[in-house]
Design a protein that fits this description.
Layout: E1 8-12, E2 18-20, H1 35-38, E3 47-51, E4 89-93, E5 96-100, E6 109-115, E7 123-129, E8 133-136, E9 146-152, E10 164-165
Antiparallel strand pairs: 1-2, 1-3, 4-5, 5-8, 6-7, 6-9, 9-10
Length: 174
Amino acid sequence: ATADDDSFFWRIDGGDWTMENGRTGSGTWYSVDSAQLDSLAAGGHVLDIAYRENGAGLDKFVIQPDGASAPSGHGPAESLLPAAPGGLAATALPSRIDLAWRSVSGTVSYAVKRSTDGGASYATLASGLATTAFADITVANGTTYHYVVTASNATGESAASARVAAPRSLAHLG
């Protein structure tokens, strides 16, 4: 982009279009003086934005009173929940059930939840896990366990993974 291309236009409440041109640079806030903004009353308004050239980009548009400080940086990160973990697998061993799943991008931690009633309800077995594996050492012979895993980030917790049942052969082990 150069100062002579990638312009865009904006207007408020169907007013006159205002052209912004020569705005280059990433992470930079620009101040605009406009009669449309000066006479803007409190309340809801419609902001229209139009691009003139292919390649023009606009990330954020902030309207605030005169004298207010410009926002810093690029603004907050997107607030999206992580996807549900995939590939959950359970392996029964003589004294435990090993769980493993695929990592989820943007995840801070994982939680493992277990059900003993066929998946009707789950109790959190472990949370705050930084890895994609967990060993359940609190298992009992003759019980079928169902597991799900969730991923969490600063926004919150994902939906649960697909449910997996521990192999019924656990009753014959250890």
